[in-house]
Amino acid sequence: MGHALRSYGTLIGMAAVILFFWVMLPDTFMTARNWINLSQQMSMLIVVATVMTVVMAVGDFDLSVGAMASLAGVVAAVLFAQGHGIAVAVAAALAVGLLGGALNGALVSLLGILPFVATLATLTIFSGVAFLVSDGKTISGRAIPEAFAGFARGGIVLGGGERPLVLSWLAILAFLGVALVWLVLEQTSYGRRLYALGGNMEAARLAGIKVARLRLTAFLFTGVGAAVAGLMYAARVASANPTQGDGLMLTAIAAVFLGMTMTRGGQPRVLATLAGVVVLGVMDNGLTQLNVDSYVREVLVGAIILAAVSISAIGRRAVGMR
Prior knowledge:
Largest sheet: 2 strands, antiparallel
Order of helices and strands: HHHHHEHEEHHHHEHHH
Radius of gyration: 20 Å
Number of helices: 13
CATH class: Mainly Alpha
Number of strands: 4
Helix content: over 70%
Number of domains: 1
Strand content: under 5%
């Protein structure tokens, strides 16, 4: 039982949550339309949680991803408002993410500042810059090109009828990102070195692994991923504001931790993180359909995360006592 709790506790909990909402919402929850809509709603979180898995694989974490996503979206929107094309705005937003990730990586890997302190500081910096760039306002309306906003509304048509099912490009982009990062972490020597670094940094250094360079590249992943999420959010709502990514950081870290309860040794793994995102997305979707107040949803989601981590810890202790 200890092994089952340690390995499958979160999956069992996810199945129980899905079953609960299926019973409570028999007409709407387990429909193809709801799950396709859910995939679009989760797409930004999937991207951020996936790249957060990379930086947590080396034993670090990034508190600035939400503010970086906001800044990237605002930069693109401001360039749109100035008359620049989609290519220029998207490239600038990605460059912002790359530079932000490089700054975080340099502070942590080269200067030796603790990730919590470094990324907490850059969170404040990125947020302040986003307010400065946008003048504290939401940029929307005709400033956002129709082709850019239309990307979020388009997708692959899965069914006909008056209201066809459409798998959005945002969800497709998110799942492609998951596949790419999975390949990098699980199928390359670079990924194996990242996990070696996260397992024992000093042993990795003695084995000849370039620790500083690897930690820097991990933060580059989170920077670019955060910028992509900011662009996705701006396209989805056809606007950008300096606070739109604020909720991504904590939820992404929670998804990674939920996923870690399902892996051997508690390692961050991309597919396990995706399962963690699904748990959080299903909870929010089901509770919203049940008209549960937002603050109650936050309490319940926090309790679910705590329960999953506790079950995993109980399972590890039970296995260790045999």
